[in-house]
C-alpha cells in the first residue's frame, strides 16, 4: 500500500476516525531533508500495510492541517492513535527510529 495523500477533505475519515495507528509525514517539495525521508516513509508504508496507515501531508497544499498540528519545521513525523497525537519527531530520522515510534502504538 502506498502512502495516502492526506488533505483537509479526507483527514477526518483517514486519520481522525482510523481504527489503526496513523503516521503522518509533513513535507514540502522544496525541502531537502523531506526528499531524503520520502523513500524511508515509502518503505515503512509497505512494511506496515494492514497494521498502520502512512499518510503524507504537503504543507504548501494543506496549510490548515499544518497549522492544526503546529508544524513549524519540516519534515515532521506525527504518530496518532484513536485521533490523538502520541509521538512527534522533527527533522530527518533513520528508518529504525520512525518504525520504533509506530511500533509503540501497535
Structure characterization notes:
35% of the residues lie in helices and 25% in strands. The chain has a 5-stranded mixed sheet with strand order 1-3-2-4-5. The chain is α/β, with parallel strands linked by helices.
In short:
This protein is an alpha/beta fold and 106 residues long.
Annotate the secondary structure layout.
Blueprint lengths: L3 E2 L5 H6 L5 E6 L4 H16 L5 E6 L4 H6 L7 E6 L2 E7 L4 H9 L3
Parallel strand pairs: 1-3, 2-3
Antiparallel strand pairs: 2-4, 4-5
Number of helices: 4
Give the rounded overall mean pLDDT. 97
Q: What's the SSE pattern?
A: EHEHEHEEH
Number of strands: 5
The computed structural class is: alpha/beta
How many strands, what sense, and barrel or not for the largest sheet? 5 strands, mixed
Please tell me how large the radius of gyration is.
12 Å
Quote the distance from N terminus to C terminus. 18 Å
Helix content: 25-40%
Query: Strand portion, in percent?
Result: 25-35%
Query: Unreliable stretches, pLDDT < 50, 5 or more residues?
Result: none
Strand order of the largest sheet: 1-3-2-4-5
Global shape? globular
Question: Which descriptors apply to this entry?
Answer:
106 residues; alpha/beta; 25% strand
Amino acid at each position: 500500500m502506498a502512502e495516502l495523500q492526506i488533505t483537509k477533505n479526507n483527514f477526518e475519515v483517514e486519520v481522525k476516525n482510523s481504527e489503526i495507528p496513523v503516521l503522518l509525514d509533513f513535507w514540502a517539495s522544496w525541502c531537502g531533508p523531506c526528499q531524503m525521508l520520502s523513500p524511508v516513509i515509502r518503505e515503512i508504508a509497505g512494511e506496515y500495510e494492514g497494521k498502520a496507515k502512512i499518510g503524507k501531508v504537503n504543507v504548501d497544499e494543506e496549510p490548515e492541517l499544518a497549522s492544526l498540528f503546529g508544524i513549524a519545521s519540516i519534515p515532521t513525523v506525527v504518530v496518532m492513535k484513536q485521533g490523538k497525537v502520541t509521538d512527534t519527531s522533527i527533522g530527518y530520522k533513520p528508518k529504525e527510529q520512525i518504525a520504533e515510534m509506530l511500533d509503540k502504538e501497535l
